[in-house]
Design a protein that fits this description.
By secondary structure, the protein is α+β, with helices and mostly antiparallel strands. The chain has two domains: 131 residues, Rossmann fold (3-Layer(aba) Sandwich), CATH 3.40.50.2300; 230 residues, 4-Layer Sandwich (Phosphatase 2c, domain 1), CATH 3.60.40. Helices cover 39% and strands 22% of the residues. It has eleven helices and 16 strands. The strands form three sheets. A six-stranded antiparallel sheet has the order 6-7-16-15-12-13. Strand 8 and strand 9 form a beta hairpin. Helix 2 packs parallel to helix 3. The longest helix is centred in the middle third of the chain and has 56 residues. The radius of gyration is 38 Å and the shape is rod-shaped.
């Protein structure tokens, strides 16, 4: 041990105190003396660390058993071993002493070999306790370091979430004949979902929605990267490029991210498209993303497109664009699969059918109310405001008379 074991000898007999001091001192233990139970209590309450108390049973004032009971009630920061010194050998006496918290007994007259054996046992126990305290201290220090690191990580994640939200478009915005509405419900501080809509030089409007596989910082980092890649320049055809812009964009992203030499690839679903300047048609391409929902005035609600492969899974993935006519009053809703896969406690998912019914029943509601309608429905469905997956919605409508 780092420090000598401190033994408090408590006995009203001066000769016994002297004998115990001599015997204990042979084993490199530090000895303090108390002439009765009250003075022993004062020593224990003084704050000085005492490892072992050897106390006579019969003493004036308070007995050794009462002293032991008082000691156990102190709730000291360390354990104090207690050995009773007695000539009693009755079973009832031993039961009473053990009930009071005594650890061991020394019978009178004292046998030096037995005393030595008792001290060696206490020494081993104290060494184990000291190692345990040292380990607990190291664990406590490590726990504090983890808490500090977690707090810093949380601050960084919150800052990253704010920065990521700054990349999202305005929740409500008019562009020519179009009115856009969008919102995101991230499952964590940051999200693997990303979306945007951009006005192009010829008056057309480009849009996209991305859903990166996984959650947290890794998915968010890729979504932010895609936000920077999918700018206005990405949607404007150059002379050396051919084919519909949405199809070309997804094919180029797939070639960039489907690299076999990069280990397990990060992949994502996406949908991107261009709405004509007059708002009378939409050309879009899917890559494993849920199909957009088309709500035409006076017509049944429907889904357009057939899916396609996610970006980054197959280097030779084939992508095609689809053109859909739009009429004044037509509403188009894009969503991430966090919407339809939102599950109740029993595991049942919200599903496409319920989403279609909900959107159909709210087709006459202002586009700006879509956020509250969908968020309220999901929260009620799962019984919680905490979502297991990111939920993103990007919707637009062709405004009549604009």
């Amino acid at each position: 041990m780092d420090n000598p074991i401190h033994v408090l000898v408590v006995d009203d007999d001066a000769l016994m105190r002297k004998l115990l001091t001599a015997l204990i001192g042979q084993h490199d233990f530090r000895v303090s003396l108390a002439h009765d139970g009250l003075s022993a209590l004062e020593a224990l309450r003084s704050g000085e660390e005492i490892d072992l108390v050897i106390s006579d049973w019969e003493m004036p004032g308070i007995t050794g058993v009462e002293l032991c009971r008082e000691l156990r009630a102190m709730n000291l920061p360390h354990y104090v071993h207690f050995i009773l010194l007695t000539a009693r050998q009755g079973a009832a006496d031993f039961s009473a002493a053990m009930a009071a918290g005594a650890d061991d007994f020394l019978l009178k007259p004292i046998s030096p070999p037995i005393l030595k054996a008792r001290l060696e046992v206490v020494k081993r126990l104290l060494e184990l306790q000291q190692r345990l305290r040292r380990k607990n201290r190291l664990l406590a220090e490590a726990n504090e370091q983890i808490k500090t690191a977690y707090a810093r990580l949380q601050e960084d994640m919150e800052a990253a979430a704010v920065a990521q939200r700054c990349l999202l478009p305005e929740p409500i915005k008019d562009m020519g004949p179009l009115r856009f509405a969008s919102f995101m419900l991230p499952s964590t501080f940051v999200s693997g979902d990303m979306y945007n809509y951009l006005e192009l030089p010829d008056g057309s409007v480009a849009f996209y929605m991305v859903d990166v596989a996984g959650h947290g910082a890794r998915a968010a980092l890729l979504s932010v990267t895609l936000n920077h890649l999918l700018d206005v320049a990405a949607f404007v055809p150059h002379a050396e490029r051919s084919g519909p812009a949405p199809e070309r964009i997804i094919s180029e992203l797939n070639r960039r991210f489907a690299r076999v030499d990069a280990g397990m690839p990060d992949y994502f679903t996406m949908i991107c498209g261009i709405i004509s300047p007059g708002g009378d048609s939409m050309t879009f391409c899917q890559a494993g993303h849920p199909s957009p929902i088309i709500i035409d005035p006076g017509k049944p609600i429907r889904a357009a497109g057939d899916g396609g492969f996610p970006v980054g899974l197959m280097a030779d993935g084939d992508y095609l664009s689809v053109t859909v006519p739009l009429a004044p009053g037509t509403r188009v809703v894009l969503y991430s699969d966090g919407m339809t896969e939102c599950a109740r406690p029993d595991g049942e998912q919200f599903g496409e059918e319920r989403l279609h019914i909900l959107l159909d029943s709210s087709r006459d509601a202002p586009l700006a109310d879509l956020d509250a309608i969908l968020c309220g429905a999901l929260t009620k469905w799962q019984g919680s405001e905490r979502f297991e997956d990111d939920v993103s919605i990007l919707a637009f409508e062709v405004v009549s008379g604009r």
